[in-house]
Amino acid sequence: MLSAHEIAALMVLGSLGSCRDIDPRDLAALATRRLIDMTHAPAASPAVQLTPAGYHVLGAVHRTSPARSSQRNA
């Protein structure tokens, strides 16, 4: 299970692609779970890529967000 910090980091990476302000421990956890790929990022560039699994998790978070649930019930 992902922590709230890891989910937030994944959301930031999904929207910005930059890991500059993200805790390295969260990046390591996301990479271990194969939700992000940092292998092709140059050392000087703080960019990472979400994997298909990372996009899948973001989609699941988006579908179950409270704001979207309350909009459906209105």
The overall average pLDDT, rounded, is 81
Shape: globular
The percent range for helix content is: 55-70%
Tell me the fraction of residues in β-strands, as a range. 5-15%
From the N-terminal CA to the C-terminal CA, the straight-line distance is: 30 Å
Q: Calculate Rg over CA atoms.
A: 13 Å
Query: What's the main sheet like?
Result: 2 strands, antiparallel
Uncertain ranges = none
Number of strands: 2
Q: How many DSSP helices?
A: 4
Q: Structural class of the helix and strand makeup?
A: mainly alpha
Structural write-up:
This protein is mainly α and 74 residues long. The chain has one domain. 57% of the residues lie in helices and 5% in strands. It contains 4 helices and 2 strands; from the N terminus they run ααββαα. Strands 1-2 form a two-stranded antiparallel ribbon. The mean pLDDT is 81.
Topology of helices and strands:
Layout lengths: L3 H13 L7 H9 L3 E2 L11 E2 L1 H12 L2 H8 L1
Antiparallel strand pairs: 1-2
Note the main attributes of this structure.
mainly alpha, 74 residues, 4 helices, two-stranded antiparallel ribbon, 5% strand
Care to give the gist of this entry?
The protein has 74 residues and is mainly alpha-helical.
